[in-house]
């Protein structure tokens, strides 16, 4: 065979591999994991800055949406510090979007590509879009307490999706394997459901209290003392289930550590809640309580995911 013929029949290197500078990214599970954690942290930070908007009465610092004012996409001096605070919170959405975009691109570039991570990363994108729309509705309705509550609860859903994304980056794609028997799984699920209910009722307490985000914003009309008592009852239920989980999960060390850590967070959060209530809701303590709600939710999710694992196929 001639040299020319041999050259013509020699298979060429695959052309679909793309630029060489992408090669380190194509096999970078550590980078994917860090970006996934960034989505968790970013969602928690957005919750905290959203609380800062409400607690500083800056909820209508940008009185319209998607623009900040009728004539400008950015805040203007006429709205003072409130405009800067509200517009700053909107800008942070773009920071989170950048993290999510980097995560999606990196996940798509991985070889082999993991379908589960693709969908979980895309869930963050669609969640941010939904959050932006709901945030706009919240502004356009003059900070209606029910849309404000929905805005916060959607953030909790995004934290759930982000946490699942992060956990899955450290697992394989094999079938789910339970680490505890069925009755104990329901203990963990009950804890998470109680945590979710506690947080949801907490938004009603907020919607009935003084920190509305703007002096003219409506309130739910509920008696703050009554809904606060209902919230406290939900907290007692959550703490009781968590204590039961600590006792019941003795045979599952990983799950028991997760439940114990959650109990510590609950006690700290409960202390902050009671102090803020009896000191008439100082802004600093309310902000700490909002941050604590996000942290508590993340630790509750840790309990849920500690009950199972997935191995590599």
Feature tags:
10 helices, flat, two-stranded antiparallel sheet, Four Helix Bundle (Hemerythrin (Met), subunit A), 313 residues
Question: Overview of this structure, please?
Answer:
There is one protein chain. By secondary structure, the chain is mainly alpha-helical. The chain has two domains: 23-170; 174-313, Four Helix Bundle (Hemerythrin (Met), subunit A). It contains ten helices and two strands, in the order H-H-H-H-H-H-E-H-H-H-H-E. It has helices spanning 3-9, 23-26, 29-55, 80-109, 115-140, 145-169, 182-208, 224-248, 253-278, 283-305; strands spanning 176-178, 308-310. Strands 1-2 form a two-stranded antiparallel sheet. Helix 4 (80-109) packs antiparallel against helix 5 (115-140) and helix 8 packs antiparallel against helix 9 (253-278). The longest helix is centred in the N-terminal third of the chain and has 30 residues, at 80-109. The model is unreliable at 1-16 (pLDDT under 50).
Beta-strand residue fraction: under 5%
H-E string: HHHHHHEHHHHE
**Main beta-sheet annotation:** 2 strands, antiparallel
Category by helix and strand content: mainly alpha
**Shape label:** flat
Task: Give the oligomer, counting copies of the same chain as homo and different chains as hetero.
Answer: single chain
Mean pLDDT: 88
Looking across the biggest beta sheet, what order are the strands in?
Answer: 1-2
The tally of strands reads 2
- Uncertain residue ranges: 1-16
* Number of discrete domains: 2
Helix content estimate = over 70%
Q: How many helices does DSSP assign?
A: 10
- Termini, distance in Å? 44 Å
Radius of gyration from CA coordinates: 24 Å
């Amino acid at each position: 065979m001639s040299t020319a013929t041999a050259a013509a029949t020699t298979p060429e290197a695959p052309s679909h591999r793309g630029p060489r500078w992408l090669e380190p990214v194509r096999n970078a599970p550590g980078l994917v994991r860090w970006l996934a954690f960034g989505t968790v942290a970013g969602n928690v930070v957005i919750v905290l800055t959203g609380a800062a908007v409400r607690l500083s009465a800056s909820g209508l610092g940008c009185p319209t949406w998607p623009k900040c004012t009728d004539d400008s996409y950015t805040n203007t001096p006429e709205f003072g510090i409130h405009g800067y605070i509200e517009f700053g919170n909107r800008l942070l959405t773009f920071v989170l979007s950048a993290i999510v975009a980097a995560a999606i691109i990196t996940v798509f570039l991985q070889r082999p590509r993991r379908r589960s991570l693709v969908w979980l990363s895309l869930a963050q994108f669609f969640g941010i879009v939904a959050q932006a729309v709901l945030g706009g509705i919240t502004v356009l309705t003059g900070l209606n307490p029910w849309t404000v509550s929905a805005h916060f609860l959607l953030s909790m859903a995004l934290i759930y999706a982000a946490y699942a994304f992060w956990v899955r980056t450290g697992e394989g794609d094999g079938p789910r394997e339970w680490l505890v028997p069925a009755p104990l799984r329901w203990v963990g699920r009950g804890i998470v459901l109680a945590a979710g209910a506690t947080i949801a009722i907490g938004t009603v307490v907020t919607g009935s209290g003084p920190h509305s985000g703007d002096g003219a914003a409506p309130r739910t009309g509920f008696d703050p003392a009554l809904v606060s008592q209902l919230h406290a009852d939900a907290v007692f239920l959550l703490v009781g289930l968590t204590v039961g989980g600590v006792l019941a999960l003795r045979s599952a060390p990983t799950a028991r550590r997760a439940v114990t850590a959650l109990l510590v967070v609950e006690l700290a959060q409960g202390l902050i809640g009671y102090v803020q209530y009896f000191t008439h809701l100082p802004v600093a303590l309310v902000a700490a309580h909002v941050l604590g709600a996000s942290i508590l939710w993340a630790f509750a999710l840790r309990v849920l995911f500690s009950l199972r694992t997935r191995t590599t196929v």
